[in-house]
Specification:
mainly alpha, about 10% strand, rod-shaped
Amino acid sequence: MASSAFDKGLAVAVAIAPLAAGATTAWISGKYADASARRETNVRMVELAVGILQQAPSPETRSLRTWATVMVDKYSDVRLGEPARLALRDSVRLPRGVFGVFMLDSVLWIGPKCGTPLMNR
């Protein structure tokens, strides 16, 4: 009798195992797709912010530049320090064609494009 209950339990487990494995695979795939889409959004927001910060600062653009520095902090893996944030908001323009937004070892970076020297700019 005990063997019969064990056999039934084993049959149920064998029937359920592929369903559980499929559901787990679908859940993991969904999480990966969600993270990938979120990362793509982060890149686009940082690109937008960098584009704004590449424009010449002026009193009229101060609030927009403040927003751009907040977006860099929010969507980038590298945080701006307070002095950099204030300089970008008030007086410093990021150079065009030198800076890019890219992934490096799964980290979103804003920095020099490969092969671009930082000196003499």
